[in-house]
Amino acid sequence: MALLEVDDIHTYYGNIHALKGVSLAVEEGEIVTLIGGNGAGKTTTLNTISGILRPRTGMVRLDGNDLATVAPHRIVGLGVVQVPEGRRTFARLTVEENLKMGGYTVSKQDVDEGVARAYEMFPRLKERRTQVAGTLSGGEQQMLAMGRALMSKPKVLLLDEPSMGLAPVLVDAIFDTIRRLHAEGTTILLIEQNARMALQVADRGYVIESGGILLTDTAANLQENEEVQNSYLGIA
Predict the structure, then answer these.
(1) Residue-wise pLDDT tens digits, 46-61
(2) Which of 40, 116, 141, 163 fits as disulfide partner to 87, beta carbons 3.0 to 4.6 Å?
(3) Helix, strand, or coil here: 155?
(4) Which domains does the chain have, with CATH numbers?
(5) How does pLDDT run across 172-213, given as a tens digit for each residue?
(6) Contact indicator for 36, 166 with CB cutoff of 8 Å
(7) Spatial CB neighbours of 40, under 8 Å, sequence gap ≥ 6
(8) C-alpha–C-alpha distance, residues 75 and 67, integer Å
(9) CB 174 within 8 Å of CB 115
(10) Using CA atoms, how far apart are residues 136 and 194, in angstroms rounded to an integer?
């Protein structure tokens, strides 16, 4: 049994059938990436897993337990934590206040340890710990969003477009962090516009198109797949 299982979910926006039977699984300690074009259903899949959206049919399970009726904040408490597209930091709070907001499900000792770990992982955040988040650069806000998510010691980290809008040097820094988290055993489901880099860090991948899973394979095999190369890796 996989740590996170998505089983034949159908999710709608009103009458729009956004996800049409999506199934995927993430084993403990894996990085799995979900790649696809704009509007394919990637973010909708993450939002359904985290309880922001509810599937009309199908199941989402963590450790075999159905999350369908669990409130989003309780899903965080169970260990599924999303870093949303666009960072979504609390703009008027300081860096340190943002981090502490991420630790509402854990003890004060764990909060203190989590803040220290975030500063060790992202030294730039420590330098700016009293600065309000709205004045940070895009890269710094992405670091803050990731650090905030890690405060609750997630079983599964959902990353939605972590490199979007960042300069290449900061993209490299974010992916170095993803590699480090992987090495430490963090389980990650990654959505990333840069499919090439996503497949370089992932163990396995799924390709989603028009709300359905088109194919799945190891990340290495997907990099060699001619259809994936033509559609997502820019290789003619």
Answers:
(1) 999 999 999 999 999 9
(2) 141
(3) coil
(4) 4-79+154-232 (3.40.50.300), 91-152 (no CATH)
(5) 989 999 999 999 999 999 999 899 999 999 999 999 999 999
(6) no
(7) 208, 209, 210, 211
(8) 7
(9) no
(10) 23
